[in-house]
């Protein structure tokens, strides 16, 4: 900017004013930004293919044990959760979650205990870091035998 001098000299005085009022500096960068995206398949499907009651002696008869054979498709799971509910699948009675190691093929056996005879809704959820898949079944436990 140019302004007249206050003294008797008639020559103009020149001041420079920065465009940045806070006194900081601006950095301009030119170039390209690159990123990669990984698409994961996830666990696509879970199936309960077999339910087997475990025969126990009378001294072990406080709980009925049932083995569930489960298969899945897609990526391999790292954990399994089993929710045991009433026959309407509305009221949860117990939830058990365990880490699992599946190496080649998604085929695993899950053993769960039932405290008393009755009909139950079973939800088995297989999960990994990016996905979950669920299978449900109704099971009737009759004091050490299941159908």
Automatic annotation (TrEMBL):
Span of domain PKAT KLD: 71-121
One Pfam family from the record: PKAT_KLD
Biased composition (Low complexity): 1-15
Region listing for Disordered, in residue ranges: 1-22
GO CC aspect terms: plasma membrane
GO molecular function: integrin binding
GO biological-process terms attached to the record: cell adhesion
Name of this chain's protein: QNR71 protein
Source taxonomy: Eukaryota, Metazoa, Chordata, Craniata, Vertebrata
């Amino acid at each position: 900017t140019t302004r007249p001098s206050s003294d008797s000299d008639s020559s103009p005085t020149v001041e420079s004013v920065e465009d940045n009022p806070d006194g900081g500096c601006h950095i301009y960068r030119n170039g390209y930004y690159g990123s990669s995206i990984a698409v994961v398949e996830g666990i696509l499907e879970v199936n309960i293919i077999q339910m087997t009651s475990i025969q126990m002696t009378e001294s072990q008869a406080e709980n009925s044990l049932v083995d569930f054979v489960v298969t899945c498709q897609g990526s391999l799971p790292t954990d399994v959760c089993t929710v045991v509910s009433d026959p309407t699948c509305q009221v949860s009675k117990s939830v058990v979650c365990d880490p699992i190691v599946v190496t080649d093929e998604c085929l695993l056996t899950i053993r769960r205990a039932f405290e008393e005879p009755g009909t139950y809704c079973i939800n088995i959820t297989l999960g990994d870091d990016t996905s979950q898949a669920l299978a449900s079944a109704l099971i009737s436990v009759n004091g050490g035998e299941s159908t």
